[in-house]
């Protein structure tokens, strides 16, 4: 007899609670100090997340001593896994010299040079502390450069939490919302229709070349080329938000397809596990931040170009050789093919979907509740993905790691759907 979905979920939650008692206690304690026990919406999942004690290479250990293959890697930001020796050494070196100064350092120049060498579209760049700040300033730069007010983004996009890009409009004045246009994905005609008559008021179109938070969705190369031609013809700046997608190739998606956006935002891997992000682009746009100019756009930031984060980011990018990218992409496609083959063999291919691009992947049972069950079931088996099923492979992972993920994903999906494998 089929078990009710609610009962099955209760059983999963009970099994989870039983192996994460100390995390449960910490969560109880956290609730007195942090709203809902949490300081980051995206790491909360009911009943409570595991609290992490330590991470090393591809694995993390929680406070109850459970070990997980970390497929989330702080939401794609740790491409070398945890505590990579080269990154740790760079951080320790800088830490001993002091952590932050009201002065520039040579390390920030070296990181900027490394980024420029990978992204020909980025002639000049500025560092920020988060991706949210990077997209906020990229849009400000675009408005300043064009003298136009509207910005356009895509349905299901995610560019951080500031007022211009937040999907949830509560707490944001309607007047701000009136300056944002929502565009359909992979749909050139829809874009022309939405912007018809407003082209000359539009400063920027911001796009994730691979959508992440809205469900892993790579843009068609032809669509990105259309965006490049259309924006150039309309005097609109094209902003590539490569905060996630920079990890797929040495030059991100723009390098892969040979497309030159006007402005690029970066984050995640360029801080090597520390808070650091960037926005950059043509000298014409970025020169406006030149502090020697009497009309310079202001851009302060107590921790911009933070020496420890910059040292960690530089050490990380230097480890990312062509062989490292090839290894990541091979594991990504092995994982996706492994899930597809096992799902087909188990008769689950109608329910368990997988999308993948290089080291990024997402497994999905098609609805939020089932995906939460999949997430919890995988945690219990020792595999950590995002609550919506997204994951990112890191360089210390092996073929047997990703085969184990594929096995577990299908096994857990089958038990959720009550099918036998
Ligand atoms: N843009 C994209 C594409 C992202 O995925 C994210 C974060 O996940 C952001 C911007 C915001 O970055 P941060 O969380 O560092 O503010």
Outline the structure in words.
It is globular, with a radius of gyration of 22 Å. The chain has helices spanning 5-19, 21-31, 73-76, 85-97, 106-118, 131-146, 174-177, 188-195, 221-234, 252-257, 283-286, 307-319, 322-345, 368-381, 399-417; strands at residues 52-56, 59-62, 67-70, 124-128, 150-154, 180-183, 202-207, 210-211, 217-218, 237-241, 263-266, 277-281, 353-357, 360-364, 383-384, 390-392. It has a seven-stranded mixed β-sheet, with helices on both faces. It is α/β, with parallel strands linked by helices. The chain contains 15 helices and 16 strands. The model has no long low-confidence stretch (mean pLDDT 96). 44% of the residues are buried. Helix 13 (322-345) runs parallel beside helix 15 (399-417) and helix 14 (368-381) crosses helix 15 (399-417). The structure holds pyridoxal-5'-phosphate (PLP). Residues 75, 130-132, 135, 158-160, 208, 212-213, 241, 243-244, 267, 277 line the site of pyridoxal-5'-phosphate.
């Amino acid at each position: 007899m089929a078990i009710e979905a609610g009962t099955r979920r209760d059983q999963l939650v009970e099994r989870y609670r039983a192996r994460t008692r100390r995390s449960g206690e910490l969560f109880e304690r956290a609730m007195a100090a942090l709203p809902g026990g949490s300081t980051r919406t995206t790491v909360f999942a009911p009943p409570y997340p595991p609290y992490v004690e330590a991470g090393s290479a591809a694995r993390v250990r929680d406070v109850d001593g459970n070990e997980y293959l970390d497929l989330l890697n702080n939401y794609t930001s740790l491409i070398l896994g945890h505590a990579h020796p080269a990154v740790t050494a760079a951080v320790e070196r800088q830490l001993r010299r002091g952590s932050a100064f009201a002065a520039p350092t040579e390390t920030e120049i070296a990181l900027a040079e490394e980024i420029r060498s990978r992204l020909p579209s980025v002639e000049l760049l500025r560092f920020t502390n988060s991706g949210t700040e990077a997209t906020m300033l990229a849009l400000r730069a675009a408005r300043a450069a064009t003298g136009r007010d509207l910005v356009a983004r895509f349905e299901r996009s995610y560019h951080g939490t500031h007022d211009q890009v937040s999907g949830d409009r509560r707490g944001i004045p309607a007047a701000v919302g009136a300056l944002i246009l929502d565009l359909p994905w992979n749909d050139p005609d829809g874009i022309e229709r939405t912007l018809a008559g407003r082209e000359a008021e539009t400063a920027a179109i911001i796009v994730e070349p691979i959508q992440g938070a809205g469900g892993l969705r790579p843009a068609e190369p032809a669509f990105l080329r259309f965006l490049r031609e259309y924006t150039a013809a309309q005097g609109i700046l094209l902003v590539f938000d490569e905060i996630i997608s920079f990890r797929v190739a040495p030059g991100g998606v723009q390098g892969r397809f040979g497309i030159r956006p006007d402005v690029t935002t970066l984050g995640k891997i360029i801080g090597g596990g520390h808070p650091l992000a960037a926005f950059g682009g043509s000298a014409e746009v970025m020169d406006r931040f030149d502090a020697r100019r009497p009309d310079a756009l202001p851009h302060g930031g107590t921790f911009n170009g933070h020496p420890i984060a910059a040292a960690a980011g530089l050490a990380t990018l230097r480890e990312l050789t062509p062989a490292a990218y090839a290894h990541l992409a091979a594991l990504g496609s092995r994982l996706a093919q492994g899930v597809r083959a096992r799902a087909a063999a188990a008769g689950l291919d109608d329910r368990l979907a997988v999308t993948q691009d290089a080291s990024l992947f997402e497994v999905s049972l098609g609805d939020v509740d089932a995906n939460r069950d999949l997430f919890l079931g995988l945690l219990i088996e020792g595999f950590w993905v995002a609550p919506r099923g997204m994951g990112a492979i890191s360089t210390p992972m092996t073929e047997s790691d990703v085969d184990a993920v594929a096995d577990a994903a299908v096994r857990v999906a089958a038990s959720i759907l009550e099918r036998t494998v």
